[in-house]
Amino acid sequence: MKVNIKKLNPNAIVPTYGSEYAAGADLYACADGEIQIEPHTTAVIPTGLALELPSGYAGLIYARSGLATKKGLAPANKVGVVDCDYRGEVKVALHNHSDTVQSVSAGERIAQIVIAPYVTAEFEETDELSRTVRGAGGFGSTGTK
């Protein structure tokens, strides 16, 4: 699938896949210098890129496991969503879950984007829903005993 990308900053790095079968393409920080993220705070990191995703697809932004485990940095909203009609700069809100100041350097891999299809639902209000064995059982209700 082709995804058109526009560099909004000449220093921006086009996303890359780390291996042949990687689901996510790495997104890179595009900043003038190092960005400091204080403990338990969030910083918005620019990528310097805008995307043109095909209709019916979204870009899902996930944490990079290495950044999360080594520095405690992960997307603040857990999974970011880039809608197919968005044409602005893709940015990543990174939250520092650690107790120490962490830094992000220009050109550093900060997150990964997975391009995925989605379904637009037509929500229809009703007075009754079909019955299931699970019913209204919520959190932890399907685990083994």
Description:
There is one protein chain. By secondary structure, the chain is mainly beta. It is built from 1 helix and 11 strands; from the N terminus they run E-E-E-E-E-E-H-E-E-E-E-E. It has a 5-stranded antiparallel β-sheet with strand order 2-3-11-6-8, with no helix packed on it. Strands 1-5-9-7 form a 4-stranded antiparallel β-sheet. A two-stranded antiparallel ribbon has the order 4-10. A hairpin with a 7-residue loop joins strand 2 and strand 3. The mean pLDDT is 95.
Search tags:
four-stranded antiparallel beta sheet; mainly beta; 1 helix; five-stranded antiparallel beta sheet; 145 residues
* Structural class estimated from helices and strands: mainly beta
Our count of helices gives: 1
Nearest-integer average pLDDT = 95
Tell me the helix content.
under 10%
Strand content: 35-45%
Distance between the termini: 45 Å
Uncertain spans, ≥5 residues at pLDDT below 50? none
Query: Could you give the order of strands across the largest sheet?
Result: 2-3-11-6-8
- Major sheet description: 5 strands, antiparallel
How many beta-strand runs? 11
Rg, please? 19 Å
Secondary-structure element pattern, one letter each? EEEEEEHEEEEE
What best-fitting shape do the alpha-carbon axes yield?
globular
